[in-house]
Amino acid sequence: MILIAGTIRIEEEHREAAVAAMVEMMTETRKEAGCVSYDFSGDFSDPTVIHLFEEWETIEHLQAHFVAPHMAAFQNKLGLLGSIERNIFKYSADGKDAL
Hints:
This protein has helices at 15-29, 59-66, 69-80; strands at residues 2-10, 35-42, 49-56, 83-92. It is α+β, with helices and mostly antiparallel strands and 99 residues long. Strands 2-3-1-4 form a four-stranded antiparallel β-sheet. The protein is globular and about 40 Å long.
């Protein structure tokens, strides 16, 4: 299993438009083969920070996601909306167990 986690910082005045783009991205990405979960969430203490968490069955599924048309459109929208900073990391896991 491949995990992606991190943050995206946006300009506060563009938050509403960025959230709309993220909702569209979540909707389209969740339809992709190999996508276990794909979520954006707002930070409770800083409205300019959005958290990202993804789970993918394989690295091949993640690589296909990177070249999906909705990924290109999303990255373009974020660029136009003033995406300031991205700190996103890839992790590998053997599986998951409930705590």
